[in-house]
Amino acid sequence: RMINGTQIRRILCRKNPFHGIKCERPTCLVCKEHGKGDCRRRSVTYQTTCDTCRARNTAAGVENTPENVGAYWGESHRSAVERSEEHLHDLRAQKEDSHMWKHKLLEHPEEDVNFSMKVLKKHYSAFERMVTESTLITHNHNTSNILQLQLQIRL
Questions:
Q1: How much is the pTM?
Q2: Total Cβ atoms within 10 A of residue 114
Q3: Helix axes 99-107, 80-92, angle to 10 degrees
Q4: For 50, which DSSP code?
């Protein structure tokens, strides 16, 4: 049997039949223009970056660098789309522990902000996922993650 020139068995017998197909959810930060990866993957490490910083740099004719684009590294046992929905909810609710809300207050207090998410790696154990996140934070000296860590230490 054929659908649009593709045999049904070729679709159904794939390990991930949704690979390469965007989910088109309005809250998915992975399927946006600057996002990257499979938003349906579970047990992942990811990076969120500020699209507003990118737009500011483009308008000024400045190259995007880790120093001038807000970024955050995280890990989740849930899917990237589920985690991005949580991050957006926390931003809208103006939660103190939201890295997106903190970034908005520090860098774009008078502007609306937009973010994208990249899935960096799929993990097969919680330990591996957490070690990878810790390594990413340590090597990238990320302000958003450092603010998050300082808040956790005070509590």
A1: 0.79
A2: 18
A3: 50
A4: E
Pairing of strands 115-122, 42-50: antiparallel
- 154 three-state secondary structure: helix
Amino acid type, 40: R
In angstroms, the first-to-last Cα distance of the chain is 60
Widest CA span of the chain, in angstroms? 62
Tokens coding 91: 């931003």
- Per the listing, tokens 């190259």 go with 63
Dist. CA 113–CA 93, nearest whole Å: 14
* Cα torsion 90, 78, 26, 61: sign: positive
The predicted structure's pLDDT at residue 139 = 85
User: pLDDT tens digit string along 81-131?
Assistant: 999 999 999 999 999 999 999 999 999 999 999 999 999 999 999 999 999
